[in-house]
Amino acid sequence: MSTPSAKERIAYIASRQCGRITFAQLRAVDASGADIRRWLTQGYLAKMLPRVYAVGHTAPDRRADLWAAVLYAGPGAAVSHATAAHLYGLIDFPPSTIEVSTPRRSIRSIPRAVRVYSRHDRPREPFGGIPATLVPDTMLDLAATSTDKIVSRAVRQLDRRGELDLKALDAVCGRGRPGSKRLRKALQVARPTIGFTNSELEQLFLELSRKWKIPEPRCNVYVAGVPVDAYWPDHKLVVETDGGDDHASVAQMHHDRANELTLRAHGLTVIRYDRILLKAGAQAVHDDLLAQLKRAVPLHRA
Question: Residue 67 in contact with residue 20, Cβ under 8 Å?
Answer without folding.
Answer: yes
